[in-house]
Amino acid sequence: MTWRIESVPYTDPRARALRRELDADLGARYDGFHGDEPEERRRARARALATHADQIVATLIALVGDAPAGHVIVRRLGDQWEVKRLIVLSAFRGRGIARGLMTAALEAARDDGADRVILQTGLQQPESMALYASMGFTRIPVYEPYVETMPRSVCFARDV
């Protein structure tokens, strides 16, 4: 079955549904990871992870037929470009969709003027880290806004 990537508005209902799927997946992966921490720190982490529509350079979804299969965002983070919210639904994995979404995200960042892209992930996402490494991303120190609330993040960068 073939797939394609479309650029959609951040508010596209299919994109929103895919982000909810990602939230559920990450919630399960990181359940208990942060231990018994104060509510203020949880709220600070939520603020660090939040993506605001005015930062968005591109919202891309992958479709298999008419079915939403994957999602990624490119946003401006200060003077940098960051890839966020990559997901491929489990039913559609193993088809190269994540690599396709990442390639399209890198192109969108470059088209917006980027010469480098950064991203943040975590130890509970080994398949993501393997994908990024295979695409030429290299590890970098944890960057803001994740330093305080997610110091164990795994961050990467790549020239585009």
UniProtKB/TrEMBL annotation:
Superkingdom per UniProt: Bacteria
Single GO term (MF): acyltransferase activity, transferring groups other than amino-acyl groups
Keywords for this protein: Acyltransferase, Transferase
Name under which the protein is recorded: N-acetyltransferase
InterPro entries: Acyl_CoA_acyltransferase, Bact_Acetyltransf, GNAT_dom
Record flagged with keyword Zinc: no
A matching Pfam family: Acetyltransf_1
N-acetyltransferase domain location: 16-160
Transferase recorded as keyword: yes
Coiled-coil annotated spans: none
